[in-house]
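Why do we care about 3D structure at all? Because function follows from shape, and shape follows, mostly, from sequence. That is the central idea of this module. The next example makes it concrete: a single protein chain, its amino acid sequence, and then its structure expressed as tokens.
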Amino acid sequence: MASADKGAWHARFARVLTVWTMLVHVPWAVSLGLALSGGLGWVGLLVGVLAWLLPLLLLSPLVFDTLPDRPRSSFRVNLLERPYLVHWAATHVSALGWLPGLVLLPWRRDPWAWPLAAYAVALVALGWGAFVTCRRLRIREIDLSVSGLPPEFIGYRIAHLSDLHVGSVTPPDLVARWLDRVRDVPVDLTVITGDLVTSGEAFHDPIADLVGRLKGPVLFVPGNHDYFGDGLPLFRRLEERGVRVLRNERVVIARGEAKLVVAGMDDVWTRRGDVAASLRGREAGVTVLLAHDPAVFDEAASMGADVMLSGHTHGGQIGVPGLARFVNLTKMANRYSLGVYRKEGATLVVSGGMGCTGLPIRFGVPPEVMVIRLRRA
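And the structure:
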């Protein structure tokens, strides 16, 4: 995409977000105005209008002017952008709070209490997700049974990283601490299933330096966000640091006479990915497919992939604690949103990812790295 086209797209995106923000702030502003004035009247009207206008005029342009991603001060990110986006998300919950308020209106004359209560609860929960959960990396170990796994690869350990989104919201120093923990875990192979960046090219150098410190061998496949800018310079930097970038190709890992095929698929969103090309010509034996988007799992299973590792969904970033696999923000749009799925003898593992896009909030879906241990079924 040319620079002029990118700029136009970013401008349209910011306008759409601003209009949506104006709409979603109306129920919250009305609730606040009515609560502070004790009912209808010019005081409530004035408070409501001010509550509606001030966030829009002061912060919306600042927060929504973040594409492409570029270095921004921690003051701006953590004391302006992040709190505002927590408030922005909570206003959506506040709007839902009007439903019980209006239903119970014949019995209570303060329907605005429900939206404000919903807003307060959401503000606390999402604030915790933005400032605490987002920073707490979970390293999760799982055993994966694979039919026909050669004895030489029983117990083979794969560190699965995805969706780091290194940038202003998930800064390099935080990611460095996470990757130091990953380096301390004994593994045989490290794979990254896309989205090292959020957008742009400003963070390519620190990303390559960070990933280059992981224990080898390290394999990487691109995600859609890696192409929200020119991804090729990033891929070259990774290769220079010993990271193998797989774009519809494969590598063979040998242990004695036994072999494990690891295929890597390019990004499907930008129409670069090709499942058939990634798997074509592979040697007989167990095949692990790395693909950023889990939506291609059905096709991969029908073509003989034994295991597929993916990311992309972030597990919705916001889900019901303990039930996030089944109830999360992306579940309706993504059939395979989080965890382990099986079909036609193939197994899909979808990581919840590490960084954030959109809202800098994780609730019920902490950042995670999976350590997958292969077992023979």
